[in-house]
Design brief:
This protein folds into two domains: 67 residues, no CATH class; 227 residues, Alpha/Beta hydrolase fold, catalytic domain (Rossmann fold). It is 39% helix and 15% strand. It has ten helices and eight strands. The protein has an eight-stranded mixed sheet with strand order 1-2-4-3-5-6-7-8, with helices on both faces. Helix 2 crosses helix 7, helix 4 crosses helix 5 and helix 6 crosses helix 7. The radius of gyration is 27 Å and the shape is elongated.
Length: 324
C-alpha cells in the first residue's frame, strides 16, 4: 500500500531523460532572433539607399562657360531608356581627344567641370559635360548608383559618334565620385571609350555602403550581401555585375588613371585599394594624403590649373596617351 506522502510527491522523469521544454524555448528564441536579424539586415539597405537614390537632385549653384571665357553648346542627349540629359559641348577645331565629364551623387553639378574644360581646351582637348540622370536639368527621378548611368555615357558616346568633328577622335571618360564609378563601368562596357580618368570612385555600391556605416568585420561581411540583394532587385539582376571592381577587369590595354585621397570620408580608401587589386597592372594611380574627395587642393576645383601637382599629373597622363 502506498505511503500518503508519496502521493503528494511530484513525479520524476525516468533516469537519463530531461524535460524538452527548455530546449524548445532556446530553439524558439534563437529562431526568433534570427528572423529579427534577417529583417533588420534586409531593411537597412532598403531604407538608407532609397533615401539616397530616390530623388531628383536640384542644384543650388551651377556654372557656365561664359564665366571662363569659352563658348559652349547646349546639347540634349536621349538614353536608351528614354531619359533626356542636359549636356554642354566645348569644341576645339582640331582636338587631341574629347573628354566626357561626369559628376557625383548629390554635388556638384557637372557644370563645375567648366573650369576643367577651359583649362584642357587651352591644351587641345574638347569636352562634353554630361549631367547624369536625375540631376539638374536632366530628367529622371532615381539616381542609378552606377548601374544605370552607363546608359547616360553610352548616349554621350553615340552623340559624339554622329558628330562629324569627332570622327576618329579618342574619347576620354573622366568622372568624380559616382561619376568616377560610372566612368569605370562605362569604359568596361563601351569599347569606343579609349581612355579612363577616375577621381574618388567607389569599388561597388555595396562596398561604399558598408564602409560608410562604419561596420567592423564580421558585421560588414554579413551586411554586404543584403545590400547587393537590394540593388539587384531595385536595378535588375542583369545589372549586378555593373560595378567598378568588376568592370575595370574589362579595361584591356586601354590607359587609365585612378586617383583617390587616403583620408577620404565620403568614399573610403579601401574602395581605391579594391579597384587597384582588380585592375590590369598597367593602370596608373595617384594618391593624395588627407581628406580630398575632389582630389584637387582645397578651393581649386573650379580652377584646376591652380593646383600645379594635379594639373601636371592629369595633363601628363592625357598627353602621353592621346596627345599625339
Amino acid at each position: 500500500m502506498s505511503d500518503p506522502a508519496d502521493l503528494r510527491r511530484p513525479p520524476t522523469a525516468p533516469p537519463g531523460r530531461r524535460s524538452a521544454r527548455p530546449v524548445r524555448w532556446l530553439v524558439g528564441t534563437v529562431a526568433a532572433l534570427a528572423v529579427v536579424a534577417l529583417i533588420v539586415l534586409t531593411a537597412i539597405p532598403i531604407v538608407v539607399t532609397r533615401d539616397i537614390a530616390n530623388r531628383h537632385v536640384a542644384f543650388s549653384q551651377t556654372w557656365s562657360g561664359d564665366a571662363y571665357g569659352i563658348d559652349s553648346e547646349r546639347v540634349s542627349l536621349t538614353t536608351s531608356d528614354g531619359l533626356t540629359l542636359a549636356a554642354h559641348a566645348v569644341h576645339h577645331p582640331s582636338p587631341k581627344a574629347v573628354v566626357i565629364f561626369l559628376s557625383g551623387t548629390h554635388n556638384p553639378s557637372v557644370t563645375a567641370f567648366f573650369g576643367h574644360a577651359a583649362w584642357l581646351l587651352g591644351h587641345g582637348y574638347a569636352s562634353l559635360l554630361v549631367e547624369l540622370r536625375a540631376h539638374g536639368e536632366s530628367t529622371g527621378e532615381r539616381i542609378g548608383l552606377g548601374f544605370e548611368e552607363v546608359m547616360d555615357v553610352q548616349a554621350a558616346v553615340d552623340h559624339l559618334g554622329r558628330h562629324p568633328a569627332y570622327v576618329d577622335v579618342p574619347i576620354v571618360a573622366y568622372g568624380l565620385s559616382l561619376g568616377g564609378a560610372t566612368a569605370i563601368n562605362a569604359t568596361g562596357l563601351t569599347p569606343e571609350i579609349d581612355v579612363l580618368v577616375s577621381l574618388s570612385a567607389f569599388s561597388s555600391w555595396s562596398d561604399v555602403f558598408v564602409a560608410s556605416m562604419g561596420l567592423p568585420e564580421p558585421f560588414a561581411s554579413v551586411q554586404r550581401p543584403f545590400v547587393g540583394l537590394y540593388t539587384s532587385v531595385a536595378y535588375g539582376f542583369d545589372r549586378r555585375t555593373i560595378t567598378p571592381k568588376e568592370q575595370i577587369r574589362n579595361l584591356g590595354g586601354r590607359p587609365a588613371l585612378l586617383m583617390h585621397s587616403r583620408g577620404d570620408t565620403q568614399v573610403p580608401f579601401d574602395s581605391f585599394e579594391r579597384l587597384v587589386a582588380h585592375a590590369p597592372p598597367h593602370v596608373e594611380t595617384w594618391v593624395r594624403e588627407g581628406d580630398a574627395h575632389l582630389i584637387v587642393a582645397e578651393g581649386t576645383f573650379l580652377q584646376p590649373q591652380d593646383d600645379a601637382a594635379y594639373a601636371a599629373r592629369v595633363l601628363s597622363f592625357l598627353d602621353r596617351n592621346v596627345g599625339n
